[in-house]
Amino acid sequence: MRPVLVRLHRWFGVAIALFLFVAGSTGAVIAWDHELDGLLNPSFFHARTDGPTLSSLELARRIEAADPRLRVTYLPLAVEPGHTLQVMVWPRTDPKTQQPYTLDFNQIAVDPATGDIQGRREWGAVSLARLNLIPFLYKLHYTLHLPFTGGIDIGTWLMGIVGIVWMFDSVIALVLSFPSAKAWRKSFAFRVARGGYPLTFDLHRSGGVWIWGLLLMMAVTSVSMNLSNEIVRPIVSLLSPLTPTPFSDPKLAGTPQPGKPDLTREQVLEAAGKIAADKHIDAPPGAIFYAPMLHTYGVGFFAAGKDHGDGPLGNAWIYLNAETGLPTGATIPGKGTAGDIFMQAQFPLHSGRIAGLAGRIAVSALGVAVAILSVTGLMIWLKKLEARRRQTRGLPQKSRDTAPADVEEQATARAKRTERRERVASPQ
């Protein structure tokens, strides 16, 4: 059985190593995405004008009036002192062509005191320009910037499948890391003094053992992030019922009716406020968004600057039909079935925000560790590949410290020999 697991680990690891290197290295950076984005682009994040600010609803009206081609789809309802109001926009339909207007941006930074636009950018654009760098890395992390093909989000599916393979490979790696109960200590050791290949091997094996639980958690949550509706929710629902939302159940999504206008943002906020009171949500309304494809509004409840889900299980959201204002679902942290709470925990776990600042530091360090494990795994594979080629050609092996022999198999053989010697030496 072990030789089969060795081969599976080898080929699973080779198949996903590059993807995990990208995910790990970018994940280490985007754990601090807003802080780094603000440092790189102060003119986009910091308002030019001090003093009293206009309401977010008024600013949204001014943005849409100044450019009828767009609709504000994500609107923070409060702004941190000294910061710009950053809104997301979506192109409206051109009545002449019945096609969406062409926009070269989807995010706008507005001075909340004057309504002046301080910057525009396409969040997630393939660009290494300073203004686009952090959003580029964020989207690279989970989609690799691969395009939609035939209505399928290729990048999201690919990285989700990588997460699934990573889950199975993590279990296999743990089994292989303990070839013998007698030699378990070696699986936690690092041969620093030896250096070279032995240290590379230990960084990969022992390094993975020390943080194995965190690695498995990251693999599981990565699948939840990319393939929630497709894979994770159906599996979780077998164990615990899940409360549907418009994002998980298309039947709850609204359908635009010709001639029937949508509710205004003010009307949506009024309806959401009543629902929030019934559900005993204490936080103030923090943002409102409109999902065009679902004809649904969402209202989040949090304080200014807390829109990234800094609570242990994220923020509360209420979803409403854009035409009728009737509730179509809600996500309330800590409320619902066991399955609901499990799903609520996925992003906070993946981002580390479930444990506050310490959690984000841990996730950033874990991203670096994933990148190192990917590199050392490839180095070990290349060494063993070289050894097999030399053996095939009948060439002598290199010195012991740098020989690419299968250290894992050697350790197993040594452990078995030790056990046999102990059995022979032990009294009957």
Automatic annotation (TrEMBL):
Membrane-spanning parts: 154-178, 361-382
Keyword Transmembrane assigned: yes
Protein name in the entry: PepSY domain-containing protein
Statement: the UniProt record of this protein carries the keyword Membrane: yes
Segments for region (Disordered): 391-428
Keywords: Membrane, Transmembrane, Transmembrane helix
Biased composition (Basic and acidic residues): 419-428
A Pfam match: PepSY_TM
